[in-house]
Design the sequence.
C-alpha cells in the first residue's frame, strides 16, 4: 500500500486489507507524508505531530493485521511526483518485492473531489512510475543497485478512488476492523460527530450496490491495472 497521508489507507482499503491478512497475505504500508499539515489541536506543538500520526497509523494497521510500516517522512501538503519520491518508493518495492501494489489514483475523480487531494494524485503518480518502469528496470536509480536492491516486477496495480473502478472487494465481514482502524486516528477526530459508522455504511453500501452485491453488503472499489 502506498498512500500520501496517515489514514488514507484506512478510508480507502482497510476492509480489503483485513480480508487479505486474514487469508494469509503479508501487507506493508508505505506512508509518504506524516500528515503534519492539517486539522490539529493548536495546543499541540507542531514538531510532535509526525510522531503522533505515525503512532496512530501503526495502531490502525494493527487493527487489520498489518505490522510492517514504512514512513518516508515527506512534508504534508506539498507532495510532488519527483524523481526523489519515485526512487524512495522504488526502494521499498525492491525491499518488500510485492505481487501487488495498491495506491491512490493519479487520475482526478470529479465525482468525489475530496478523494483527489493533490497529495493523493502525486502519491499515485509516483507509485505508478515506481511500479512501471522504475522497480523493474535494473538501470533505474543505480544508487539502489549499489544498496544491493535488485530489480523487481510488480504484477498488478490496484488504484483507490479511481473514476474507473472495476474491481470490488466485499468488506462486510471486516467492517468492524476498518472502523477500529479509522477510530485509531484519534488526533483527526474521525468520529467527531458520532456518525462515522453511518457515513461509512452509506458509502460502502452504495459501492456494494454498484458492484451488484446484495442488500446490506459493504464493498471497497479499485481500478485493477495489469502491468505485465
Ligand atoms: Zn489523504
Sequence:
Amino acid at each position: 500500500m502506498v498512500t500520501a497521508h496517515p489514514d488514507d489507507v484506512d478510508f480507502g482499503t482497510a476492509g480489503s486489507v483485513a480480508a487479505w491478512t486474514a487469508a494469509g497475505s503479508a501487507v506493508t504500508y508505505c506512508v509518504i507524508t506524516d500528515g503534519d499539515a492539517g486539522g490539529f489541536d493548536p495546543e499541540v506543538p507542531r514538531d510532535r505531530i509526525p510522531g503522533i500520526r505515525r503512532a496512530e497509523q501503526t495502531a490502525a494497521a494493527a487493527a487489520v493485521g498489518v505490522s510492517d510500516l514504512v514512513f518516508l517522512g515527506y512534508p504534508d501538503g506539498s507532495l510532488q511526483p519527483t524523481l526523489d519520491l519515485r526512487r524512495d518508493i522504488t526502494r521499498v518495492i525492491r525491499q518488500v518485492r510485492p505481487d501487488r501494489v495498491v495506491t491512490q489514483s493519479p487520475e482526478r475523480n470529479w465525482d468525489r473531489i475530496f478523494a483527489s487531494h493533490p497529495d493523493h494524485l502525486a502519491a499515485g503518480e509516483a507509485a505508478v512510475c515506481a511500479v512501471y518502469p522504475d522497480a523493474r528496470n535494473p538501470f533505474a536509480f543505480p544508487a539502489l543497485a549499489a544498496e544491493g536492491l535488485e530489480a523487481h516486477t510488480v504484477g498488478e496495480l490496484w488504484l483507490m478512488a479511481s473514476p474507473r473502478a472495476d474491481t470490488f472487494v466485499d468488506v462486510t465481514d471486516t467492517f468492524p476492523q476498518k472502523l477500529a482502524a479509522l477510530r485509531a486516528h484519534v488526533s483527526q477526530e474521525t468520529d467527531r460527530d458520532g456518525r462515522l459508522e453511518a457515513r461509512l455504511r452509506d458509502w460502502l453500501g452504495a459501492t456494494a450496490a454498484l458492484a451488484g452485491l446484495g442488500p446490506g453488503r459493504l464493498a471497497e472499489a479499485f481500478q485493477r491495472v495489469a502491468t505485465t
